[in-house]
UniProtKB/TrEMBL annotation:
PANTHER family: DTDP-D-GLUCOSE 4,6-DEHYDRATASE-RELATED. It holds the Pfam family GAF. The lineage of its organism: Bacteria, Bacillati, Bacillota, Negativicutes, Veillonellales. The keyword Transferase does not apply. The chain crosses the membrane at residues 314-333, 339-359, 366-391. This is NAD-dependent epimerase/dehydratase family protein. InterPro entries: Epimerase_deHydtase, GAF, GAF-like_dom_sf, NAD(P)-bd_dom_sf. Gene3D superfamilies: 3.30.450.40, NAD(P)-binding Rossmann-like Domain (3.40.50.720). Keywords: Membrane, Transmembrane, Transmembrane helix.
Length: 715
């Protein structure tokens, strides 16, 4: 049943360079977002959908019509060129007609003038570079659509670095590729400054901008530690096999406007976590691996081109020569005549037709030349005329014209057929691509329809989910609520390994109450609170615990159950899947624990009010009917908890009243055990015990003067 729970995921559409996508996608997937890529035919990431839509406005409209994206990330710097303005204009026009969420445009520091002081968001846009001017026009165009109702913010970054960079992505990629290929780099001024930012920091900057609801026009991000060229040079050199080559005759410009990240720190709490010195080794290693892969790919392409050249250029000529030699042999055995005496047919026509139909006019004309040349040579030998005279013989001239006509006709037919085949092949590929796109859109529509159907019919939205949790926990029996809590937690979080611990009377120990899952059998039945710092903090602050450091021996997630201002139980979850480590799942856990606390409070209140009906007055000894009822509730727990057992033991304390028995046993039995009446005797119910544990309990009771006359396992 847990697997049927469908949650409403947020969705993000990303149009960025590959190396930025590789950092962005895991950040959003970790938070349970659906990720889509624009401008890519395919992707290596799992559970990521890619749409090309580069030159198809209708396809872009359909994508934005089917999906309501909560966030769109559009990199203005990706493959920037004069066509970028038209592409951006088209994208904004389509987005304005569809209901979309936040749109974040990624820009750079090139739009700002190079000054010594860091540039803030209100700094006037002024640049001298060609790319900077084009980028400033793209920014202005994007912001002009904000008045049309689009929620647009422009994020400015310095040079971004990360694994997966291509050769011409930015300055640092060009520099590292040149160094890896042992090429010379320009000479830069040593005192010029430039900033660099990790793609991982960029990913979290984008995510936090959305999460914190920033609505300003601009927001700047930077490492806060710009580097001079000398610093940059030495960082690169330290992670290379040899010193970069410098072309002293070629002057380069290293300086770039420095951005001030103070506004990002104040508004969204963002701060750069990585430095170039820490990550340059991984980036350079990735560049070298990319170059090796490109070299292997180029070798493969060269081999394929050689094979293609042999197949398309050399083989037709070879076959043509072989055909000509075959015609020469036939004409020799036919007595020098081109026409077969048995079958009155000139096989040169067949030879020319075959070459024309297979390879086109060029090979057809070559076959005509060979056929006529063979005919002339044989006629010259047989008739004794001069070679020039033979060419003017009517019969030979007629042969030449008929050969030429055959070559022209078959060559034309072949080339027309090839042209139609190429056209049909292109149209077929286009139709296939369009068909795949429409099929994907259809499946996306079906999935969205199914999600909406489940939300309506099964009430799986927030209100329906809370109602289901409350209705499941609608009980006044504490033991039953603990059972239901384990089941509800497993269903809501879609997990299978859960333990619920109850807090002891002295708040020093946790005792295992309920467990679900085979992997929880090895977990301790009792936890000393002072041995676990997270439990100490939970007892004081009543907060959830998240095992972010993946410490062995601790649960992945733990939540307190609170009653009258103190923790009375703890829900612990183990072996959570990676996609469950999100804010959404933590909120579900928090809501569930609060609802459980409310239900237990109601159950405890009811239990206190019904003390006289359930217990012998003045004691904690259950009446017989209630004692049997507890056994039946524990039978339900046995069905969901493998290895769970219940043993009841009759105690032998003759001559003592029920109050005296209660006082004698009160401090010697566990919190999760029960005392009750069966027949004429007082019995103790031991929950979740094995033979060894039962022997230890009997020994402890005997030391306190309590003898067990009979013990039997009821579950």
């Amino acid at each position: 049943m847990a697997s049927e729970i469908q949650t409403i995921k947020k969705s993000v559409l990303i149009k960025c360079a590959t190396y930025i996508e590789q950092s962005l996608i895991p950040v959003f997937q970790k938070e349970n977002w659906e990720v889509f890529l624009l401008g890519k035919k395919k992707t290596d990431f799992c559970n990521v959908t890619a749409y090309d839509c580069k030159s198809d406005r209708d396809a872009l409209q359909q994508v934005l019509s089917v999906y309501h994206f909560d966030l769109i990330v559009y990199d203005l710097r990706e493959k920037i060129g004069i066509q970028s303005i038209a592409c951006l204009e088209e994208f904004l026009q389509v987005a304005s007609t569809r209901s979309q969420g936040k749109i974040l445009f990624l820009s750079g520091a090139d739009v700002l003038e190079k000054k010594r002081i860091p540039a803030i968001e209100t700094t006037f846009v002024q640049t001298e570079s060609k790319e900077g001017k084009l980028l400033s026009r793209l920014e202005a165009l994007a912001l002009s659509w904000k008045q049309q109702g689009l929620h647009i913010t422009i994020l400015r970054f310095p040079d971004i670095y990360g694994t997966g960079m291509e050769r011409k992505d930015n300055f640092i990629s060009q520099y590292l590729y040149a160094c890896a290929e042992n090429k010379s780099v320009p000479l830069y001024r040593s005192d010029e400054k430039r900033d660099f930012l990790s793609s991982q920091d960029v990913a979290y900057a984008i995510f936090q901008t959305y999460e914190r609801g920033y609505i300003g026009d601009y927001l700047h991000f930077a490492s806060g530690k710009p580097l001079t060229y000398d610093d940059f040079y030495h960082i690169v050199w330290e992670n290379m096999d040899k010193e970069p080559k410098i072309d002293s005759h070629k002057q380069g410009h290293f300086a770039q406007a420095i951005l001030d990240p103070e506004q990002a720190r104040k508004q969204i709490g963002w701060k750069a976590r990585h430095s170039l010195a820490e990550n340059i080794a991984d980036v350079y290693r990735d560049v070298t691996h990319t170059l090796l892969f490109e070299e292997k790919r180029r070798q493969k392409e060269r081999q394929e081109q050689r094979d293609k050249k042999i197949k398309e250029r050399i083989m037709p000529y070879a076959e043509n020569v072989i055909g000509a030699l075959l015609m020469l042999w036939l004409m020799q055995i036919q007595g020098g005549s081109s026409v077969n005496p048995i079958v009155p047919f000139d096989f040169n026509f067949l030879y020319i037709a075959v070459m024309g139909l297979l390879y086109g006019r060029r090979q057809a004309f070559l076959a005509v030349f060979f056929s006529y040349l063979i005919l002339l040579v044989l006629s010259f030998g047989n008739l004794g005329f001069g070679l020039i005279a033979v060419m003017y013989q009517p019969a030979e001239l007629l042969h030449f014209l008929s050969y030429l006509a055959m070559g022209v006709i078959t060559g034309y037919i072949s080339e027309q057929s090839k042209f139609r085949d190429d056209e049909n092949r292109w149209q077929h590929l286009h139709d296939q691509e369009r068909y795949r796109f429409l099929c994907h859109m259809f499946k996306a529509n079906v999935n969205i329809k199914d999600k909406m159907y489940r939300q309506i019919v099964n009430s799986q939205d927030s209100i329906g989910r809370i109602y289901r949790i409350v209705s499941t926990l609608d009980s006044v029996e504490p033991e039953n609520i603990y059972n239901k809590t384990a089941l509800v937690t497993a269903e809501v979080l879609d997990v299978s390994q859960i333990i619920i611990y109850s807090v002891g009377r002295d708040s020093a120990y946790l005792r295992q109450k309920v467990r679900i899952g085979d992997m929880t059998e090895g977990e301790p039945h009792s936890l000393r609170i002072d041995d676990y710092p997270y439990l100490q903090q939970m007892m004081k602050e009543h907060n959830l615990f998240i095992n972010r450091d993946l410490i062995k021996g601790l649960p992945d997630l733990a939540a307190p159950i609170i009653y009258e201002g103190r923790v009375i139980a703890v829900i612990q979850v183990y072996q959570m899947d990676f996609d469950k480590w999100s804010t959404f799942e933590l909120n579900l856990m928090a809501v569930t624990s609060r609802l459980v606390s409310t239900s237990l409070a109601r159950a405890y209140t009811w239990e206190q009010e019904m003390m006289e009906r359930r217990y012998i007055p003045g004691t904690r000894i259950l009446k017989e009917k209630e004692f049997v009822h507890i056994i039946e509730e524990l039978r339900e727990r046995h069905q969901m908890q493998k290895g769970y057992s219940v043993t009841i033991a009759r105690i032998d304390l003759p001559g003592m009243t029920y109050k005296q028995i209660d006082q004698r046993l009160g401090n010697q039995i566990r919190l999760e055990d029960y005392m009750g009446i069966l027949g004429d005797s007082v019995w103790i119910m031991f929950t979740d015990v094995n033979k060894q544990t039962l022997a230890l309990i009997q020994k402890r009771l005997a030391q306190g003067g309590v003898l067990i006359s009979e013990a039997k396992e009821v579950i």
